[in-house]
Structures are given as structure tokens and as C-alpha cells.
Amino acid sequence: MLQGIAASDGIGLGRVMLLEEHSLAYSDLPPADPKAELVRFQGAVETFCKNTRKQAELLRHSAGHKEAQIISAHIQMLSDPYFCGEIEKRIAGGQRAEAALDQVSQLFIAMFLASGEDLIQQRAADVRDIRTALLCVLLGLKEIEVSKAPKGTVLVAKEISPSVAAGINPKNIVGIVTEIGGRTSHSAILARALQVPAVLGLPGSTTLLKPGSYVIVDGSEGQVLPDPDEAVIGAYRQRRARFLRRRRQLNKMRGVPTQAASGESYGLYCNISKPEDAEKALEEDGEGVGLFRTEFLFMDRDRLPGEEEQFAAYRRAAVSLGDRPLTIRTLDLGGDKALPYLNMPKEENPFLGLRGIRYCLQHPEILLTQLRAILRASAFGNVRLMFPMISTPEELWAGRALLEKAKAELTAQGIGYAGHIPVGIMVETPSAAILADILARDSDFFSIGTNDLTGYMMACDRNNPQISGIFSTLQPCVLRSIRHIIQCAHDHSIPVGMCGEAAADPLMTPLLLAFGLTDFSVAATSVLPIRAAISRWSLEEARSVTDAVMAMATEEEVSRTLSARPETQIL
Ligand code: PEP
Ligand code: MG
After folding, report:
1. Mean pLDDT of the chain
2. CB neighbours of residue 431 within 10 Å
3. Verdict on whether the full-model pTM lies above 0.90
4. DSSP 503
5. Of 94, 113, 139, which residue is a domain's last?
6. 220 and 101 in a common domain
């Protein structure tokens, strides 16, 4: 079994077709007539644009409008005066068209790769693709065609460019394996849009997988199984059938509102930890972001990120989401999230120590910088702000006071921010849960953090296997606290969401509907399954199950009762 990067979900079984790359060797001899050479280059550009338009049209049909833009963008890049102008200048100076194109492309590739930013680095792959396609035209080579591949083909290549991907017919190509590329590369995006299972970034695959041999591509696990025996093939065929059944059911949930069977609507958002995850949230049909865990911007580095860096990150997420909500949680350090460069003192009980808002209020300069960055980003989207680990009203007031200070500073400096930014809290400590009626007075919304709330309510470390049976959100004590928090939010007419893992647990769904939760925030991959889970319950049914469950004394009974309901089955 070979392990690569899981780039496009699903299982494909078929025979290997190796995509050999053309040799793009060209002569270095200077042309006799630079003017004629320029005309030859411009002719090649025209042919390239014509071919690209055709490929974009193909992609529009097979994958979609957004995906087609990936390659139409190549035409725009070619009209960049710096890129094309530089090539033409070199040709006018006596260079051969192929050499000028190659050298200028390499310069741009190196420049984009050096940027260190994901999105800009992606453009290096675009330039590589343009270079290959244009060199093919100049050298009179036919571009690699995959559109005629027979049924049951697994494409294996060093790298699959978007223009090659444009020719993929998903009825015939059952899998893609490449040596280069990751989950965010254009070929991965296209493979997902075409719903072809793909394993990318598998070094040596073009030599390890022999043309014509039978392989299994498991794009969900990132695995390739060469020459499987009958038993393995049978097992994977079954897994593929299950996968396709589930995909069909979930696809019905794409693009539809999140509603219970009786018609009530809910918000269904995503939890993210990097700005680029906001795009993934939308890809998975999330309706916004219910939790941006900002601490990840502070990790794997040797000093705090400054205001500009944070602002760029928050703005990127805000812009990607447009008018959909982006809920940014301020820094939640402590517990198991320590930053070595801050030299945080060692604590006897870190989970009961200087965590979340507690740390930030002791280091107001860190929180102030973050609040300024968040406020500035609020001018670019629909930003909500949330404080973690609140356990007393004073902490909320102090957080709000710092926010006002940050606003006053920005106003004095003439820097813009949104007129109204809702300020909410994570309800994840027992004290916040019990004091929810008080905290609701000064909160614009609640978000229930069941990961911590369960641990603190049950006095149970979720990572300790000896007591893992106690750590469950289905414990009657935890359910009662959730019901109480939601009731307090209703009494004060503020929205109440849930961003802990329990929001994505279909066993919890009827209870959350009956308690009156207003929105769910889950991992991007759980958006469609939870929308499906919500759609299976009418409020009446949910209330009746909840009434029964809330009278039970043990987690075991609650869990058994909910698991027996067909509506709670995981797809
Ligand atoms: C939670 O505690 O439920 C939560 C969402 O926060 P985190 O998992 O980041 O502690
Ligand atoms: Mg938490």
C-alpha cells in the first residue's frame, strides 16, 4: 500500500494509464530574424488562448463555472504586460521564443514560490502550466489528451495541470495519482469538482505503478493499492458502493437551507483555524464561520504575530465570506495550548489555570493588538467577536472595555471599522453555564463550547483513557446545563449557537432542536451530514424524544435511547 495525500474523496478501481510528459527540449540557436520570431511567438499565444478557451468551456460543463475560471485565468496572466512584455523584449533582443518564454517563466515561478503565501505560490503552478502549453505550441507538439482514455482508467502522472484536467471525462477516469501536488493545488480542486478520487503528492508513483496494472485509489485515505487480490477488490467495491450512496444522499443537502422537517430554520456554520479554511467552509456549503480559533496563528513560530499580520489573516477570511458571518474568537491560550516563546509559567493544573480570557486580561497589550486587528478586518465583512473561557461577568466587562479602548484608538487614528460588531462569549465553564442569565445581559450571542463544558461539568479529563467513559456530552448533567444556557439566551432574546464537537453529533441533534439552539458550528466535513440530520426531525418529534431523555438518570440510557432512533443514524 502506498500513502500519499488524500486530495479528493472516494474510491476508484481501474487500470493505470501513465501520462508521459513531452520532452520540451528546444534549440538555443538565435533566430535569423527577430521580427519573424516575434510574429511566431504572438501566433503561438493566439493558438494557446484559443485552446484554453476551448478547455475552459469543457470544464464549465464537467466541473462548473468557478473551476473553468482556473484556466481562463491563464489567458489573463498571459496578458500581464510584465510577463508577456518581458518575453517579447527578449525576443526583440535576439533570443529564441522558446528560450525567452522558458527563462521569463522560471523567473516568475521562482518569485511566486518565494512569497511564502499559499495563494501566491499557487500561481507558480499556473505559470508552469502556461509555460508547458505554450512550449508545446511553439515546438509543434500535440498537448497530452486524456479525453479519449478508456473506461476504468486511473491516471498516473508527475503532475496534472489544470489544462490536462480539463480533458478528464469522469465517466472514464476513475482515479488520479500524482507525484506532485497537495490538497489545495488546482488539480486537487478540479478532481474534487469532477468527483474523481485522487491521491496526490505520492513520490515515485510514476515508476511504482506500471501501465496497464490494476490498482485501487482510495482518495479519502490518500492510499493507493497496487495489484490487489480478489478479496481486497471485493471489500473496496463494497466501500465504494457505501461511499457513493452516502454522497448521493449528502448531495441532496447541498445548496438547500438548513431546516427541520417541520420547517424551522437554523444557521449552519464552520469551525476554522486558518484564514484559508474560510474558503473550504464555503466549498463544503457552510453558511459562514461560527468559530475561528485564532490561537493557531500564534503557534509554530517564535514571536507573537503583529497587528498587520493578524489584520491580513482576519481580513482574508472576512473577504472570502462576504456578508456571511465570521465569528472570531480571541486568543485561547493555556490548557494544552502553550506558546514556548511566551515563557508561560508552569502550572499544577493548566486546565484550571491561566486559560483563554484570563491570560489575555493579564497581558492586555496582546489582546489589544488582536482586538485592533479584528476591528480593522470588520470593515471588510460581517465580523462577530467572541471571548473564550469566560467564567465571571467581570471578565466579560474587562474584555468589552478593552474593545472600546481599541475602537477609540482606531477612531483617533482615522482607521475604519464596522459600525456594529456583535460581541459574544463562549459558554464553556460551569460558572458561565450557571450564570448564563447574568452573562446574557451583556452578550450579543452565546456559543456553547461543549468540549470544555463537558470536561469541566464532569470534572473529567477527556484525554485520560481511564475515565473516558465519563466524558460524554450525553451525560444528564451536561444536557441540563446546555438546556439551561439555551433557555437563558432565549429569555434575553440573544442567538445561541454551539461550536463544540457535540454540534456535529447526530445523537445530540434532536435535543438541540428541542432546547431551541439557533445555530450549529461544525467541521467543514460535517456541514452536509448535520444538515441532513436536522432535516430528519420535526420539532414535535424532537421534543417528544427530548422529554423522555431529560427524565433519564444515566448517560448509558440516554445514549441507548437516542442510538435506537433511525433519525440519528450516521449516513
Ligand atoms: C469547546 O471547548 O467546545 C471549544 C469549541 O473550544 P476549544 O475546543 O477550542 O477549546
Ligand atoms: Mg474550549
Report:
1. 93
2. 14
3. no
4. G
5. 139
6. no
